[in-house]
Design goal:
- With 276 residues, the chain is of the alpha/beta class.
- The chain contains seven helices and 14 strands.
- The protein is globular and about 55 Å long.
- Bound molecules: zinc ion (ZN) (3 copies).
- One zinc ion binds next to helix 2.
C-alpha cells in the first residue's frame, strides 16, 4: 500500500481554533438516510436552501491542545474533505448504528499520522465496532499504514487534552446510547445528544446551564427512537442552556422551520461552527 509522504501535522490548523477554548463544527446534521433522501421529491428534498442538504450526524471538536471527532458516519470522508480536517487525535462514539460508524475506515489517514487511533466507546458499542471492523481491531498481520485502533472502553468521565468528557446515557428506542458533555476548567461548554427518544431528569440536571445544547429533533411527528421538535423543546426548557441547536434532522423538517422556534433555539446545519 502506498501512502503519500506529506505530514498532516505540518499543515496549518483551521482559523479560530486557537482563539477559543473549544470550536465545534457540525460535520453532519441529518438523520440516518441523510437529506435529501434517495428517490424523494418532497419540498425539503428539492429545497434550494443549501442548509437543507444534510449528511449523517457527527461533530468535529478542536481545542488548543487536541482535536477529535464524535462518530464517523457514512459520510465521514466527504465531511473531512469539505472541512479540510488535518488532524484527528481520537474518535468518540455515541453508539454503533450504521449512520454513526460506517466512515470509521477513513480514519486510517489520521491513524497513520499518529501511529494509532484512540477509540472511545461504551463496552457494547466497542463490541460492535470490533465485530464490524474486525480487520482493523483483530488484524492477524497488521498492515503498515493501515487503521490501527487503540480501544478505550468508557466507564465514566475521561479527558482528551484538557477537555473533560462525561458520558450521558440516554434511551434511543430500546437501546441506551451515549450523549456527551464537554467541559473545560469546570465549565460546561456543550452537551451533544444526537440520538435519543427521551432525556431522563438526572441527565437534564447534569447539564443544566450548559452553554450549548445540541439535541436530537428529528421532525414534528413523534418517532419511536428519536425526539420530536416539541419533545426537544421540553428538554431545552429543563436544561436552560445558553443556546439550543437541533440535529439529526429528517426531510420532514426544513431549515426554514427555525423561524417558528423560540428565541435561543435553532436548527443546526452542516458546516456550522460554534466557538465556545
Ligand atoms: Zn443516528
Ligand atoms: Zn423528502
Ligand atoms: Zn441511532
Amino acid at each position: 500500500m502506498k501512502v503519500e509522504g506529506c505530514d498532516l501535522r505540518s499543515m496549518p490548523t483551521q482559523a479560530g481554533t486557537l482563539n477559543s477554548q473549544l470550536t465545534l463544527t457540525f460535520l453532519g446534521t441529518g438523520t440516518s438516510q441523510g437529506v435529501p433522501m434517495i428517490g424523494c421529491d418532497c419540498e425539503v428534498c428539492r429545497s434550494s436552501d443549501p442548509r437543507d442538504k444534510r449528511l449523517r450526524s457527527s461533530v468535529y471538536i478542536e481545542t488548543p491542545e487536541t482535536s477529535f471527532v464524535v462518530d464517523t458516519g457514512t459520510d465521514f470522508r466527504t465531511q473531512a474533505l469539505r472541512e479540510n480536517i488535518r488532524r484527528v487525535d481520537a474518535v468518540v462514539f455515541t453508539h454503533s448504528h450504521t449512520d454513526h460508524i460506517m466512515g470509521f475506515d477513513d480514519l486510517r489517514r489520521f491513524s497513520h499520522v499518529r501511529g494509532s487511533m484512540p477509540v472511545y466507546a461504551s463496552a457494547e458499542t466497542m463490541r460492535d465496532l470490533e465485530r464490524v471492523f474486525q480487520f482493523a481491531f483483530k488484524a492477524a498481520k497488521p498492515i503498515p499504514y493501515y487503521l490501527k485502533p487503540e480501544p478505550h472502553v468508557i466507564d465514566g468521565p475521561f479527558k482528551l487534552g484538557s477537555t473533560t468528557i462525561t458520558p450521558l446515557p440516554v434511551p434511543h428506542g430500546e437501546s441506551l446510547v451515549n450523549g456527551y458533555l464537554f467541559s473545560r476548567d469546570g465549565e460546561k461548554l456543550v452537551a451533544y445528544l444526537s440520538d435519543c427518544s427521551a432525556v431522563p431528569d438526572e441527565i437534564a440536571n447534569a447539564i443544566v446551564d450548559v452553554r450549548a445544547l445540541i439535541i436530537d429533533a428529528l421532525r414534528h411527528k413523534p418517532h419511536p427512537t428519536h425526539l420530536s421538535v416539541a419533545q426537544a423543546l421540553e428538554v431545552a426548557a429543563k436544561v436552560q442552556p445558553g443556546r439550543t441547536l437541533f440535529t439529526h434532522i429528517a426531510h420532514e423538517l426544513p431549515q426554514a422551520a427555525e423561524a417558528e422556534l423560540p428565541a435561543g433555539v435553532g436548527i443546526a446545519y452542516d458546516g456550522l461552527k460554534l466557538n465556545l
